[in-house]
């Protein structure tokens, strides 16, 4: 069994257009994935879908080499979160992609642990009224108090963190984004707070919501960073996982990944300077 931790892979889809290299990733997709891929009208989206889902299969086989990439099968939870089919080795994973970047988190030795990753195109325009519609009041007030030049970056920091949490819990958008909040300190620390009183009563009674937002329930750990690209693009990246017994994020290994005709998946280990993080409380 591998040591416990998380492998986080980043793949820049615009730099992986060589059909000779991408072929091994596309070839392992199942029939349903190929059919869905074919339905995308735009070449870029079709290409990214194939890369992203091929990467999932290749990366899972790195962790569980007894299963070939084409043999992985998946099921969806009640809110649409994909998971490995029960008949196969249990591996937690989560996938996110946006224009220019694919992010995949896979657990090593943490088969049942909650795991969520989100990546956002932080260079796109956004109206801050979106924050007022979805974010917690404390977050909106702190966002508005920032200088105008910093507000967009903070918006995508918050959005990526929130998406990583609702993906980790498997609750998706059934969990209102105002039901939990993040605050930021000057030393790069995140404070994560739950606001169960802001949820409808019916939602508070759901077992999954209770575990996710109970003050004495699971401790979730977060990491967040801005990833700069070679062409000046910027992406907001957030990772959420259940903490260790000490309340810390499991060890994270980061790889820049690309398809390779020779090695199927080509990883280059890289370091990352996380901008924001939670620590043991």
Describe the protein.
This protein has helices spanning 19-27, 31-38, 43-63, 129-134, 137-145, 148-169, 201-204, 207-213; strands at residues 5-11, 74-76, 82-84, 93-98, 101-108, 115-121, 180-184, 190-194, 220-228, 234-242, 252-260, 264-270, 276-277. It has 281 residues and is of the alpha+beta class. A five-stranded mixed β-sheet has the order 4-5-1-11-12. Strands 6-10-9-13 form a four-stranded antiparallel β-sheet, with helices on one face. A two-stranded antiparallel sheet has the order 2-3. Helix 1 packs across helix 3 and helix 2 runs antiparallel to helix 3 (43-63). The longest helix has 22 residues, at 148-169.
Keywords:
31% helix; 8 helices; 4-stranded antiparallel sheet; 281 residues
């Amino acid at each position: 069994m591998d040591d416990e931790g998380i492998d986080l892979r980043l793949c820049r889809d615009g730099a992986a257009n060589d059909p000779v290299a991408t072929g091994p990733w596309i070839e392992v997709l199942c029939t349903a994935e190929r059919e869905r891929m074919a339905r995308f009208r735009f070449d870029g989206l079709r290409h990214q879908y194939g890369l992203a889902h091929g990467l999932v299969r290749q990366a899972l086989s790195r962790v569980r080499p007894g299963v070939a990439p084409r043999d992985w099968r998946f099921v969806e939870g009640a809110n649409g979160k994909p998971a490995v089919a029960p008949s196969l080795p249990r591996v937690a994973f989560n996938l996110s992609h946006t224009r220019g970047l694919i992010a995949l988190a896979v657990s090593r030795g943490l088969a049942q642990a909650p795991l969520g990753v989100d990546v956002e195109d932080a260079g796109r325009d956004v109206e801050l009224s979106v924050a007022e519609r979805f974010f917690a009041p404390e977050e909106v007030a702190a966002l508005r108090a920032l200088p105008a030049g910093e507000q967009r970056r903070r918006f995508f920091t918050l959005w990526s963190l929130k998406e990583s949490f609702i993906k980790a819990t498997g609750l998706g958008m059934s969990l209102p984004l105002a039901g939990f909040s993040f605050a930021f300190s000057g030393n790069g620390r995140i404070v994560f707070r739950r606001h169960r009183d802001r949820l409808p009563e019916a939602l508070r009674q759901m077992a999954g919501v209770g575990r996710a937002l109970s003050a004495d329930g699971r401790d979730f750990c977060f990491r967040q960073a801005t990833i700069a690209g070679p062409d000046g693009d910027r992406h907001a990246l957030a990772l959420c996982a259940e903490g260790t017994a000490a309340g810390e994020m499991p060890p994270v290994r980061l790889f820049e990944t690309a398809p390779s005709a020779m090695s199927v998946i080509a990883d280059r280990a890289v370091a990352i300077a996380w901008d924001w993080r939670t620590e043991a409380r």
